[in-house]
Amino acid sequence: MTNEIRPSSDEIDERQLRIDLAAALRLAARNDWHEGVANHFSAAVSPDGRRFLVNPRWRHFSTVRASDLILVDADDPDTMTRPDAPDPSAWSIHSALHKHVPQARVALHIHPPYATAIACLKDPVIKPIDQVTARFFNRMGYDLDFGGVAMEEEEGARIAASFGNHGAVMMGNHGVTTVAATVAEAFDALYHLERAARTLWLAYSTGQPLSIIPDNVAEQTAQSWEEMKAAEFVHFDEMKRILDREDPSYAD
Asked: E strands along the chain, which residues?
């Protein structure tokens, strides 16, 4: 499998983007982050981001192939009237993200167990207590105005607004979403966000006070993560190699 292609304003490798997005879906299922036939991953194929790929309605993540992904247009009002329409919540959230969040070339929205559990706390902030949690120090948005299953345009717009210039949002009483320029970067952020939430949850479960890293050290640690950007692509390539060996059907 070749390295993921970074999108540019004049050339986007849709075939490779399909393969990468399908791989991310399969890997999410392997990690038990998915929720039945719900949750959605998307990736823009047009320079303005408004035409994007998304997983088909009510298809289990573990079965999605590159060729199964559907291509939709955030500016097309008739999308939801067609037989192959995406899930209504996918349309609500992902059309808003691709319209209004410039950094959301790729958007992975999901309800992984630990991050969702933290999102259900009165205080869902990912506190810096180790180097993984510190990756997200001052780099997360928080949407604390859950209004039910995201079916309406207003819900998607509110979620999109919660990103600001960040690459991840804790969605109160709901789940999480990561966005990035590529599938590799969005997947790596999601992977580490769920691990950060797991560490925080386990620390909370002891009942003892958290040992919070000082702000200056947390910021320095977060910057160190940003300086290791190449590792995000290597991580995703390694995970695709596992899929290639064990079940290459994702790329079909």
From this structure: 40-44, 51-54, 70-73, 106-110, 141-143, 168-171, 175-180
